Amino acid sequence: MKKLISVLLTLVLVFGLVACGDKADTKDTEEKEKVEEVVEEKEEEAEDAKVEEADDESENEAPAEPAGEDQIYALITKSAGNPYMERMAGGFEEVVQESGYEAIIKHPAEITAEAQISLINELVAQNVSAIAIAANDVDALQTALQAAMDQGIKVVSLDSSVNAASRNTHIQQAGVQQVAQSLVDSVEDLAGGSGDWAILSATSTATNQNAWIDAMQEIMEDDQYSDLNLVEIAYGDDEYQKSVDQTLALINNYPDLKVICAPTTVGLAAAAKVITDEGLAGELILTGLGLPSEMAEFIGDDAATPYMFLWNPVDVGRVSGYSLIEMVNGELTGVLGEKFDAPDGNTYEVVDDGADGTEIIVGPPFRFDASNIDEWKEVY
Ligand code: RAM
Which of 75, 76, 77, 82 to probe ligand 1 with, by most ligand atoms within 8 A of CB? Predict the structure, then answer.
């Protein structure tokens, strides 16, 4: 299309030149011939562009092969290089392959909705059977995901949800309220009930981060927490270096800061390294959601993080795989009240997500401290 527009613009320009020339009465025949030649060339180019465009359109219209017996299950992560996302993808891949189907894992080039939309469009063109997506934005993926569902592709969000109209259901790692309450209690405990604290989040559009932060702020409206002062919500975009820089900025900007709560594994690991390297362990205390394998060296009574929380990311991927396989095989639709028995021995139930959709909750958050970190660092 761009090519066609540029050709048409050139034509307008050339005709404009001819018109101007006429007005100025410079009817030099050589000039005129040259102009006619250019017009001819441009007309030919326009024809070629039209043909190319028609080819493109027919490519888009060509119906892809239906999924049939060769089912393909795709998972789109939030971003590449995040160990949490890699473990989640690993669980998904394992379940899909064990069931005899093909798994595709896609990492967007950037941690944005736009980069995820390109991947969704690719998978729709490929006519995969199902898509699981950890969303970088709650609403922005709607058009692309609805196109997928219109084509019969089953869709779940996992880890970070899309709105209810964009999915069949959401695979929720742990109840939002439960996670938020655990984090709030830890901030209160570690701050000794009063003082400045900050949040170090991932991206500002991540549905899961925002849901936890909103729920935490709501809980903190209670009088019990009135002496705690949230000074800033910083965003490290789930990039290690940016999270390091944001932690350093918080330390510099708030000399009385007592606690940083990072509800992101990337942010927590980066902040723990900074606090340790700056010799601040014990003074500025860290809590949040962390991956035991990344955090083991920073957990303990005298370390940067006395304790933290998480769930098993591998299971989040597994339950997404189980749910999509049920959906593709016509056993599950994602409607409230449905249940299914999974190969892991558990029964999963579709429940109300508290907004206008449904979700399947994987399990409760788990607390990690000096007493159990060595055991769990080997697991995930
Ligand atoms: C990061 C991501 C992910 C979140 C975990 C806790 O890896 O932001 O979405 O669930 O942390």
Answer: 82
